[in-house]
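Entry for the shared binder. Reason: the reviewer on the internal report wants the predicted structure included alongside the sequence.
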Amino acid sequence: MGKEIERKFRVQADWQPQGAGVRIAQGYLCAVPERTVRVRVRGGRGYLTVKGKNEGISRAEFEYEVPLADAEAMLQLCEQPLIEKTRYLLPQGELCWEVDVFAGANEGLIVAEIELPSPDTPFARPAWLGEEVSDDPRYYNSSLQRHPYKEW
């Protein structure tokens, strides 16, 4: 079984993107606390992801590549608005920060995530890292779809 162990943080306003980043459009076919089913188009490729209920910073995760045309068609079935963002990857030793700069209904929000091999894995905190929001459900992408950042 796939497992995601992830910590999430706000990013301070003075952070500046480096590199081109990758545009992502994603939507949800199902977004209830017990499970989410996400469709994503990232870098010209399509993905279908099923995630289980959060247990702290961990949850079951299964991701499958699907044909791009199928992913684009499934996005039309998703609740609106779609999540729009540009992702920047910032390697840090064996780990990698993913910094998402949101657009559309969530414009103005910048969030950094780091996936860990175990919940207690130590990691360096970059100077641009803000408050931790791992336990705040408002920052789940599925929540941002229903309650966009611009409405907070």
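Summary line for the report: Residues 26 and 89 are 18 Å apart (CA to CA).
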